[in-house]
Write a structure and sequence with these properties.
278 residues, alpha/beta, Rossmann fold, 9 helices, 19% strand
């Protein structure tokens, strides 16, 4: 299925959490001169116009990036600088996708592999990333693409897996893909994004990771309301395998503030925990 378009949801609270973690990891990777490779299995369009017809239909960014107070989040100065770089004059008009955040950190020795199946988003992604020869943009299944490029020659890498979960079988597919990729590239950093629409799905996914034999897994989740049986995403989170050593402390400080600023009711919450020890 290819009905999902991230342009309707760009800059929402889930994007904020995902990209904060992404930036923190990329900042860690560039501290060493050794090259790294970035793999984005569901890259999307790369950059989003928040004044577009799609974005204005739901205006989810108003409850995400549009609600953040940077002054209360000094730990995230790099994240805000990157977002502001796409918005001259103090007006929030554009929001960068994961490929745009990653592109900022790529050095001459680094490479990126971006995969997108939706034909329109693929064309937009190619256009938005065309200025960088270190970036490969592919119109194919990102999970298959990931398996083809791990382990990278550099032996240093970050894999972001950010599917739409249009069908429930995707939860099984992404776990199986990570499990197989980890056997080939055990030292890589893997970031799996998930939405909480039905908590049971996430509980099953968490249990699979705990039983997988994979070590060093952390979880960061932000809920803008309490879990509910009603339709819609109430929270989202990330499972991070082989996280940088400072990430847990940073997110422990940041998540309470994010919950306060982005929460929609008294039911807002966050999770910052170690799923499997190192």
């Amino acid at each position: 299925m290819l009905s999902y378009r991230h342009s309707f949801h760009a800059g929402n609270f889930a994007d904020v959490l995902k990209h904060i973690v992404l930036v923190e990891i990329l900042e860690h990777l560039v501290q060493k001169e050794a090259p790294f490779e970035y793999i984005d299995t569901h890259a999307g369009a790369g950059l989003f116009n928040l004044h577009s017809t799609h974005a204005k239909k739901l205006e989810e960014h108003t409850g995400g990036i549009g609600s953040l107070d940077a002054a209360q989040l000094p730990q995230l100065s790099c994240y805000f600088e990157l977002v502001n770089g796409y918005n001259r004059g103090g007006t929030l008009k554009h929001y960068p996708g994961s490929p745009a955040f990653a592109q900022h950190f790529l050095r001459p020795q680094d490479r990126a592999w971006l995969y997108e199946l939706h034909p329109e988003d693929y064309q937009s992604l190619r256009k938005n990333m065309q200025s960088n020869r270190k970036i490969r943009v592919e119109h194919e299944d990102g999970l298959k693409g990931m398996m083809a490029v791990v382990p990278p020659k550099s032996r240093r890498g970050l894999v972001l897996i950010d599917p739409s979960y249009e069908v429930k079988t995707e939860y099984d597919q992404v776990f199986d893909a990570i499990n197989k990729a980890h056997k080939k590239f055990a030292t890589g950093i893997y970031v799996l994004w998930y939405p909480v629409v039905e908590r049971r799905q996430i509980d099953v996914l968490e249990k699979k990771f705990k039983m997988s034999g994979i070590k060093n897994i952390q979880r960061f989740e932000l809920g803008v309301t309490a879990d509910t049986k009603e339709r819609g995403m109430t929270s989202s989170g990330l499972f991070v395998i082989n996280p940088p050593w400072k990430l847990f402390d940073t997110m422990s400080a940041v998540l309470p503030v994010l919950a306060q600023q982005l929460g929609r009711s008294d039911g807002q919450f966050y999770k910052c925990d170690i799923i499997v020890e190192e």
